[in-house]
Design goal:
Elements lengths: L2 H8 L6 H16 L6 H8 L3 H7 L3 H24 L6 H18 L7 H9 L4 H27 L9 H22 L3 H15 L3
Helix pairs in contact: 2-3, 2-5, 2-7, 5-8, 6-8, 6-10, 7-8, 8-9, 9-10
Length: 206
């Protein structure tokens, strides 16, 4: 299957053309990055005239901001679904997240990682508003992990005395690096290492 067909299948075609463009942007930015992706490529995949793009977005930069916000909302809901699952213990929820993430990396054959991590490396030095939007997304993810860790502490499921906020910050720094290494190594081993050491050594399950 060629690259364009893969992206079309990933970005399900809603009736809303603006959302279609955002979905395509999410898929292609995650795989290729922002700078190297042209608007011509995006509208070709969307099968719309280039002029129609500017009906929905003033510029490629504005488009990228919308892609970041949309992905942030999507992933936040995914985290909430996993980390707020009261049918599992807080520690089990964290393990479930890492397992789902590993499965996702394998599903896309190590070609795609985390959109926020990818764009963070590429765009944070371009404009301040990009850095702020990316940081806002990461801050939400960190807070959700922090809440889960605090709950694990409250239930005496883990023994660590390290502050939950510091642990959550450390987790995302390590996890984003592991996602990058997994793409380079074509292996989930970096994710496995971060998950295992974070849970067994830092959280210290009872």
């Amino acid at each position: 299957m060629n690259k364009i067909m893969q992206i079309k299948q990933t970005a399900a075609k809603p009736n809303d053309k603006k959302l279609l463009l955002i979905n395509i942007g999410t898929a292609i930015f995650t795989q290729k990055g922002f700078s190297i992706t042209s608007l011509d490529e995006i509208v070709e995949i969307a099968e719309i005239p280039k002029g129609s793009f500017y009906y929905y977005f003033k510029s490629k930069d504005e488009f990228a901001i919308e892609v970041i916000k949309n992905y942030g909302i999507y992933f936040s809901k995914k985290l909430q679904r996993i980390l707020s699952n009261d049918k599992k213990s807080p520690l089990e929820r964290l393990k479930e997240f890492t397992k789902e993430a590993e499965a996702g990396v394998r599903r896309y054959e190590f070609k795609r990682g985390c959109l926020i991590g990818n764009l963070g490396q590429e765009m944070a030095t371009l404009e301040e508003r990009f850095r702020i939007e990316l940081l806002n997304v990461i801050a939400d993810w960190r807070d959700q992990v922090r809440q889960c860790i605090d709950l694990a502490k409250e239930r005496r499921e883990i023994k660590t005395t390290v502050d939950a906020s510091e642990l959550a910050n450390f987790f995302w720094c390590a996890w984003e690096g592991a996602v990058l290494c997994s793409k380079l190594e074509l292996s989930t081993q970096p994710l496995n290492i971060v998950s295992r050491l974070f849970i067994t050594e830092l959280l210290q399950p009872v």
